[in-house]
């Protein structure tokens, strides 16, 4: 009888051992995949706070790669709608004669690479990921002739470059050994608030072998911004507080001047 019970338990034990083995294989393979991740990157801070004394800032972007390839970093600001106007002299006065509106224009655009782009990329890959100012295109101006639209697009990019919001040249990324990389990214004082993203690519022989996206947020801080946010989000409370402050200030001033 005891032998029969042992034989009956064998299938259950076998199922248990097979389940345990499968779980161990899954855990080990997951650990190996995590260790073999080809690209890991991060920012020194994911928040830029703009105060009344803000004059610009720098953030450190750093990371590591596994395997051959060069690194490209693209940082884009929040999308905006931008009107580009051309002035013409009419009857002795300079007036806006033509306006083209572009949509989905990044408020900030920055590109860095660990080697010259033409040494390890190709035009198809760069165009697909919109890497480089010459490959940026924005919706809008469909009613204009292609030549005119190109002139206005170039004017938009030129204006952003002059404002320091579009970095004209590809910035060098430092490689530390075969794996580590780092670069400082400068943001000007007129940087726009909103959500940004840093796109990091590992490129080998003209092909993206790994990619990562890291978020970045720019927001205003300080008393002035808190008051403006209160006025926008709680208009009734802001109005009552403003009236009470005005009444208190008037009563205090009247009391002081009566004593003198």
What does this structure look like?
With 260 residues, this protein is an alpha+beta fold. It is 36% helix and 36% strand. The chain has helices spanning 2-35, 123-128, 146-162, 223-233, 235-259, and strands at 39-43, 47-50, 57-65, 70-76, 79-90, 93-106, 109-113, 171-172, 174-176, 180-187, 194-204, 207-220. The chain has a six-stranded mixed beta sheet with strand order 2-12-11-4-7-8, with no helix packed on it. Strands 1-3-10-9 form a four-stranded antiparallel beta sheet, with no helix packed on it. The protein has a two-stranded antiparallel ribbon with strand order 5-6. Helix 4 (223-233) crosses helix 5. The longest helix has 34 residues, at 2-35. The radius of gyration is 30 Å and the shape is flat. Mean pLDDT is 81; it is low at 1-10 and 12-34.
């Amino acid at each position: 009888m005891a032998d029969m019970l042992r034989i009956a338990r064998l299938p259950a034990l076998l199922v248990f051992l097979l389940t345990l083995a499968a779980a161990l294989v899954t855990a080990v393979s997951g650990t190996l995949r995590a260790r073999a991740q080809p690209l890991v990157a991060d920012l020194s801070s994911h928040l830029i706070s703009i105060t009344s004394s803000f004059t610009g800032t720098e953030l450190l972007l750093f990371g590591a790669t596994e395997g051959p390839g060069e690194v490209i970093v693209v940082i884009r600001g929040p999308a905006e709608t931008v009107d580009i106007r051309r002035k013409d002299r009419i009857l002795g006065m300079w007036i806006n004669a033509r306006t083209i509106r572009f949509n989905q224009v990044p408020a900030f655009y920055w590109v860095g690479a660990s080697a010259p782009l033409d040494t390890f990329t190709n035009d198809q890959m760069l165009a697909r990921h919109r890497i480089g100012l010459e490959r940026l295109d924005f919706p809008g101006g469909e009613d204009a002739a292609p030549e005119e639209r190109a002139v206005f697009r170039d004017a938009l990019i030129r204006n952003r470059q002059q404002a320091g919001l579009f970095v004209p040249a590809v910035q060098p990324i430092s490689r530390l050994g075969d794996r580590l990389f780092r670069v400082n990214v400068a943001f000007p004082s007129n940087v726009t608030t909103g959500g940004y993203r840093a796109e990091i690519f590992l490129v080998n022989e003209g092909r993206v072998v790994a990619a990562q996206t890291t978020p970045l947020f720019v927001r205003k801080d300080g008393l002035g911004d808190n008051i403006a946010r209160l006025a926008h989000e709680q208009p009734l409370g802001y109005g009552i507080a403003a009236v009470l402050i005005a009444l208190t200030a008037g009563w205090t001033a009247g009391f002081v001047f009566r004593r003198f």
